[in-house]
């Protein structure tokens, strides 16, 4: 499929989204053919309710720019990409809910990683015991309601997310929302690292040292995009170079 059938901005969004899919397994955050990363096409006329999503049946390492499916927030396929596959309904239910209610969100990532699921099962949730975890001091929680295929769960999910950009789906996994693909990937990477560190600390059984609330608040503030910089944007070109050194076929 030729990139010439798409506008420049849509093609760039497809390339960046495909890159995010390819990066996830390289950092241990994929789940066979499951889970999703969705992106809105920024600035595209009439595309406010259109998102790109992966074909259900492909592993993350197979995703290319041309294989991504364009759907609207009602779940209708607008462009099937280069496959004959459809999106996963559970992915549509979760991701479309966030995109519909948060117009500041350009990208949503949901994972079922081992440590993300482990922390999602812990009653205390994510503990502010590392600098990385303190970045997510405003993380929210959504109680498990079984496989996410019921449309009426959407209202409760977005209400629980609120204005936060990170959420733990209890007994399920992790979710981040970001203004861009680059920022969302960066947030998910560090949320995953925070969960891995917590699981490691708790597994060794040592007494945990907790920073003061004042230090947690200070650290959280320093990660806000308006304080120092929007984390993820500076890192993204390095992420693309990392991919290109291994396999640049995500751009096709």
From TrEMBL:
<dbReference type="InterPro" id="IPR036409">
    <property type="entry name" value="Aldolase_II/adducin_N_sf"/>
</dbReference>
<comment type="similarity">
    <text>Belongs to the aldolase class II family.</text>
</comment>
<dbReference type="GO" id="GO:0051015">
    <property type="term" value="F:actin filament binding"/>
</dbReference>
<dbReference type="InterPro" id="IPR051017">
    <property type="entry name" value="Aldolase-II_Adducin_sf"/>
</dbReference>
<dbReference type="InterPro" id="IPR001303">
    <property type="entry name" value="Aldolase_II/adducin_N"/>
</dbReference>
<dbReference type="Pfam" id="PF00596">
    <property type="entry name" value="Aldolase_II"/>
</dbReference>
<feature type="domain" description="Class II aldolase/adducin N-terminal">
    <location>
        <begin position="15"/>
        <end position="199"/>
    </location>
</feature>
<protein>
    <submittedName>
        <fullName>Class II aldolase</fullName>
    </submittedName>
</protein>
<dbReference type="GO" id="GO:0005856">
    <property type="term" value="C:cytoskeleton"/>
</dbReference>
